[in-house]
Amino acid sequence: MTNNKIVLVTGASSGIGEAVAARLVAEGHQVVAGARRTDRLDALAERTAKEPGGLHPVRLDVTDRADVEAFVRTAHDRFGRIDAVIANAGIMPLSRLDALLVDEWDRMIDVNVRGLLYSIAAALPRFTAQDSGHFVTIASIGAHEVTPTAAVYCGTKYAAWAITEGLRRESAPSIRVTTVSPGVVSSELADSITDPDAAAAMHTYRANAIEPGAIAGAVSYALAQPGDVDVNEIVVRPAAQR
Ligand code: NDP
Question: For the sheet containing 133-138, what is the strand order?
């Protein structure tokens, strides 16, 4: 069953999620791909149509619990099981705390933390019922260190790391749990930055960015391990990032 897993990916319309979805479809898996921009998902389905697996686009807003429940239920109804969930959807509108962009703090908490929790809430009962499953969270090196302008973003990623680690500790051995923590990766993530100083700093920072395929490789590696091997965390940085 190694290469025909049913894998759900949140935030599959760009960047890391798109690369993960494309790689898993190329490896022969059935990928249920969720995001709000369904035109992007449809284009990805078209681009990967000749690959051995399949890509199934679903409109998904991870901040809406009912939406996340429906995302998981639809996949389960269609395929009869769910082998893995990749909780990848995230936003990063960076700013210093004293800029008081409180609405952006709220949005980061909603997507990066609540969205992850809703994904666990939807997947865990299925995993428990089928006595198998693999939950993969895309956290960040921001789950391990805090940089100026990234206090709230890092706070959400520390939370994502802690919640995922808690899930791992609490889960039966039949349920595997992996955190993938990327360094700087080329994607649309910085487009959500509205604070001019944070945007300028990020522009410089991103000069070393690696391609999202590097993170897709890490996810693929974790999924491909035999059932008694749980890759707990993979940190992938650009070689030039210290
Ligand atoms: P992108 O901006 O390219 O992709 C983000 C994805 O999240 C998009 O597919 C977007 O889809 C989706 N998304 C955002 N909000 C929602 C929502 N409410 N509901 C559903 N989907 C949503 O960024 P990346 O690929 O870089 O980011 C992916 C993950 O990787 C994030 O969790 C990010 O924090 C993490 N990460 C990224 C790093 C980097 O340097 N790029 C480094 C470390 C971690 P849509 O807008 O269509 O809904």
Answer: 54-59, 30-35, 6-10, 84-87, 133-138, 175-182, 233-236
